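User: Predict the complex with GLP.
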Amino acid sequence: MRIFVAKDYHDMSLEAAKVVADEIAQKPGIVLGLATGETPLAMYRELIRWHREEGLDFSQVITFNLDEYIGLPPENINSYRYYMQHNFFRHINIKLKNTHLPNAMAVDVDEECREYERQIAGVGGIDLQVLGLGQNGHIGFNEPGVDFALSTHLVHLAAATIASNARFFAAESEVPRLAISLGIKSIMQAKKILLLASGSSKARAVYELVHGAVSNNTPATILKLHQDVQLVLDERVAMHISRV
Ligand code: GLP
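Assistant: Here is the predicted structure with GLP placed in the model:
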């Protein structure tokens, strides 16, 4: 596990964007696994800037997002499809047909999960998976207690996640209780993983990830078993970890 500690959120985002851009330069038809949340927003902004100013080319890039809330249609401002369109996809030259998120409106959720896995396998798997981190150590929507053997699956969100994500909704009662998420098994199959974390509220989860044992109490700790993981952190989230 490689660890890069940036001075603040801006520098963390710049470093993460560099990693993504370098990978695209090496493989223009790369398959990217993408994350939502507040953490990657400035990384997306930086990639958009490089597209506009330096011609970073997304025309062959394929993306799969980690997760989506069940029941929120794409035009709902809290759906992750809406987030991706507005914060990233519509500002770059990616082909819409190459961007994938779980279908939150699927009638048969189990079949949708299997289909999502088939689509990922059909393009040869994820080359680079970008991850954020929940305060409780979740990755995607793989909540504490999750079965590490699961691939894409239906998730009942943890109370802590509902409370934390309520900041994006008018009221906590409006936060969906269910989601579809890439499972830990699917995330671990990515060839390379880039995890971003910033802010003191994630410091405990990052400490566990770096110094703790692998445990599904803090799902991100599974990444200790992956052979190619890079953590890009800011100083506040990294304050408790030793860097020797
Ligand atoms: C959400 C998402 C995760 C994200 C995490 C952290 O619940 N499902 O993919 O990484 O929470 O979000 P934030 O970056 O806003 O702290």
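The chain has a mean pLDDT of 96.
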